[in-house]
Every structure is written in structure tokens, then in C-alpha cells.
């Protein structure tokens, strides 16, 4: 690749993974032309209502690439384990950084394409950043890769309006999540496998909880385990990314077992309109009677502080826990690559999915720079070996701790 010639890069997927790699490539200042195609039909993705553990690579990424330098996270200083009565039965000093999906997303959008939000001021443009675009309501339907490496990859995209168009690129990056369409094109046998349990999720304003709840949740990472059930909570930024005490949110995740396709599982994943969901049942779509039963179960089985969080949550949502990993990250001689969840989807116990995407993005941007300097083949092999090793190790770890928690005996079960 010539150092002076702008290169066309298409990123399929405009959530965190796509924006992480988009920003990392933009900041190479190599006059790249970067287009993100996001299938969601709205200009901004809706708040996922989810907390994120900001691992070391996430923190490093935002230190390097967030030109707004917006405060990112809330420190959690302890891990607490409660018994059924709400007493602390174990306490560990453990500092971790907690943030939220929506804060990360809005900061990435502001840095990538200058989207105006309430989260940060738009940074000034820098020389050499090339052209970028974030195109929503766009679903990638086909990829054609010519045998001649000198020819461009052809990508077919269908807009929300029904219009279909074809565009070309030197490089296509699949950052389209754990249900990746691009991964399915190359590895149709690799499918998400349901792990036998789901995660109920929700948030409550820090100002709405009682003092006993605030004492065990505010700036702490708190757990409760019993047979087949695990729930945890931690503090995350509030509206528009505020870190002000009292305005922050308490984010909780409740893992609960459901046998696949059992009557209970089918009812759980069927929304108010009768539509069955297989992976995520979005906030606001859970049937009232299902949510009423879950709150009753919380009062019967959880410590009072956790039961209070569940009871005061207004718009919970449900995610099925799944496993998936691709055998390769580099395809078509390096003209198509898989990043983040499109490469490997981890169980949330690892708190590593966003960290993987940040690490993949930073290291792949370095690889693209080497490719432009004529060191592509060796750099791609090294990058693929690194990210595959990481993905395999973290996924094995996630399966082990998830299965132990949900189907085995946890040492701190009450």
C-alpha cells in the first residue's frame, strides 16, 4: 500500500466495536476514507441501559483516542458478597473502573463523525484524518472478493428505504456483533449456542434506593450467589454521563436458569406483542405478568438490597447467554477481518467483551499502518495469532466460571 494514497475501508456494524476501530483508524492520520454501515434505523443507537466494566484496554483506548478527554468511569473499591439476609459475608479490596454503554457510545460518535450530544463537546478536526461517514439504516447483504488482489472488494448494502447499492473498498471490517452476518457467510457452521441461562438487567437511580442498599452498592461491586442464581450490581454514570453522587445509576445483572425451548423459556422470551426473541428481549417489551413474577421471585430469593433494586427498576431487559467463536480473524488474505464480538462473543462474567473490542481496534490500527508501509503479511499473521489466543483463553474462562456459577456449587453460595 502506498503511504500517500487514501484507502477505502468499510466497517460493518456501528455499535461500540465498529466505532472503536473507526476511531483508531481515523487517528492514524493516513487520509483513510472510512464508512461505517449500521443496520439500526435511527441516527443514534438507543441507550442499552447497560453497565460496562472498563478494563485496562478500554481505559487505554479512551486515554489515547478520546480527544474530548471526558471523565469515563466510576471507581469501585471493594467486592462484597452478601448472604440471603443481606449481611456482608466476604469483603475483598479490589479497585475496578465502571462505566456505561451509552457514555462510551456517545463519546465514540462525537470523536468519529462529530455527532453533537449532551455528553461532550465536539473536538476540532485534525489534518490527515481523511473522510468518515456513519450511515444508519444500512444492512450489508453481500460481499464479493475478486481473486486478483489488486481489485477492490465489492460490498452490497440495502438501505431502510429498500434501495440497494454497491460500493467498493480495499478492506472490509466485520464489527457486527456476536450474531455477525459476515462471520456467518464465511463460517455458516459457527452459530451462537445458548448456555442454559439468561441475564435479567436493569438500572435504578442512586437517589431512589434506601440507605442499606446504597451502603452495599455505591462504588462497590456486590454479589449474591445461591444454587442456579447469581446477581451482581455496581455503580455507573448517570444521565448524559454524569459522575455526580446521587445522580449516578446502580446497574444490576441477574443470571437465572431456563432450559432451552422449555415452556418457561418460550414465555420469557415472547414479548408483549407475541413476538418471540432468541437473544435479547428489549427494554419495554417484557410482558407485565412475566415481570410481576420475576419481582415476586426477587422478594423470595434475593437479599433485600438486591430485591429493592429489582422492584424499583422501571424498564428491565433480558439477554440470553451464549457462546460463539470463529476459527479465524483474517479472511481473504487480509481484505476481510473479524473484530470484537464478531470474532468471539464472551459470557458477561468475564467483563471482557468491550475490552476485547478496544484491544482488537488498537492493535489492528497498528497493523493497518504496517500494511500501508509494505509489511502486511507478517503483521496480519502476528495480529491474528494474538487476538485468537486472547479470544480462546477468555472464552474458556467465561464458560468455566459461568457453568460453575449456574450449574455447580459456588464457594460463597448461601
UniProtKB/TrEMBL annotation:
Residues of the 2,6-dihydroxypyridine 3-monooxygenase substrate binding domain: 194-323
Top-level taxon in the UniProt lineage: Eukaryota
Any Pfam family: FAD_binding-like
SUPFAM superfamilies in the record: FAD-linked reductases, C-terminal domain (SSF54373), FAD/NAD(P)-binding domain (SSF51905)
Coiled-coil regions listed in the entry: none
InterPro entries: DHP_3-monooxygenase (IPR053212), DhpH_subs-bd (IPR054707), FAD/NAD-bd_sf (IPR036188)
NCBIfam families recorded: PRK07236.1
Name this polypeptide is given: 2,6-dihydroxypyridine 3-monooxygenase substrate binding domain-containing protein
Amino acid at each position: 500500500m502506498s503511504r500517500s494514497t487514501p484507502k477505502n475501508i468499510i466497517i460493518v456494524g456501528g455499535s461500540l466495536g465498529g466505532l472503536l476501530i473507526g476511531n483508531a483508524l481515523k487517528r492514524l492520520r493516513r487520509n483513510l476514507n472510512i464508512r461505517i454501515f449500521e443496520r439500526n434505523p435511527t441516527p443514534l443507537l438507543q441507550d442499552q441501559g447497560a453497565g460496562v466494566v472498563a478494563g485496562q484496554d478500554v481505559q487505554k483506548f479512551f486515554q489515547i483516542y478520546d480527544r474530548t478527554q471526558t471523565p469515563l468511569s466510576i471507581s469501585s473499591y471493594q467486592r462484597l458478597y452478601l448472604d440471603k439476609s443481606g449481611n456482608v459475608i466476604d469483603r475483598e479490596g479490589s479497585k475496578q473502573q465502571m462505566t456505561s454503554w451509552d457514555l462510551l457510545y456517545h463519546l465514540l460518535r462525537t470523536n468519529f463523525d462529530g455527532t453533537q450530544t449532551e455528553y461532550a463537546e465536539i473536538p476540532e478536526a485534525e489534518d490527515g484524518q481523511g473522510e468518515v461517514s456513519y450511515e444508519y439504516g444500512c444492512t450489508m447483504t453481500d460481499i464479493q472478493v475478486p481473486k486478483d488482489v489488486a481489485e477492490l472488494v465489492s460490498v452490497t448494502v440495502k438501505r431502510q428505504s429498500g434501495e440497494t447499492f454497491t460500493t467498493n473498498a480495499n478492506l472490509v471490517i466485520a464489527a457486527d456483533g456476536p450474531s455477525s452476518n459476515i462471520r456467518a457467510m464465511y463460517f455458516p457452521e459457527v452459530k451462537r449456542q445458548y448456555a442454559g441461562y439468561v441475564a435479567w438487567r436493569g438500572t435504578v437511580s442512586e437517589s431512589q434506593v434506601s440507605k442499606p442498599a446504597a451502603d452495599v452498592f455505591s462504588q462497590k461491586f456486590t454479589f449474591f450467589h445461591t444454587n442456579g442464581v447469581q446477581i451482581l450490581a455496581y455503580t455507573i454514570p448517570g444521565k448524559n454521563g454524569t459522575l455526580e453522587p446521587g445522580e449516578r445509576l446502580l446497574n444490576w445483572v441477574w443470571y437465572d436458569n431456563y432450559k432451552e425451548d422449555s415452556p418457561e423459556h418460550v414465555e420469557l422470551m415472547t414479548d408483549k406483542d407475541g413476538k418471540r426473541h432468541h437473544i435479547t428481549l428489549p427494554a419495554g417489551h417484557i410482558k407485565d405478568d412475566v415481570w410481576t413474577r420475576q419481582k415476586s421471585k426477587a422478594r423470595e430469593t434475593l437479599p433485600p438490597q438486591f430485591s429493592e433494586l429489582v422492584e424499583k427498576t422501571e424498564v428491565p431487559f433480558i439477554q440470553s447467554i451464549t457462546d460463539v467463536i470463529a476459527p479465524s480473524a483474517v479472511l481473504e488474505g487480509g481484505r476481510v477481518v473479524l473484530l470484537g464480538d464478531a470474532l468471539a462473543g464472551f459470557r458477561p462474567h468475564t467483563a471482557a467483551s468491550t475490552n476485547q473490542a478496544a484491544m482488537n481496534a488498537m492493535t489492528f490500527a497498528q497493523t493497518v499502518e504496517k500494511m500501508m508501509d509494505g509489511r502486511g503479511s507478517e503483521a496480519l499473521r502476528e495480529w491474528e495469532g494474538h487476538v485468537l489466543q486472547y479470544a480462546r483463553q477468555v472464552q474458556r474462562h467465561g464458560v468455566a466460571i459461568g457453568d460453575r456459577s449456574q450449574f455447580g456449587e459456588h464457594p460463597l453460595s448461601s
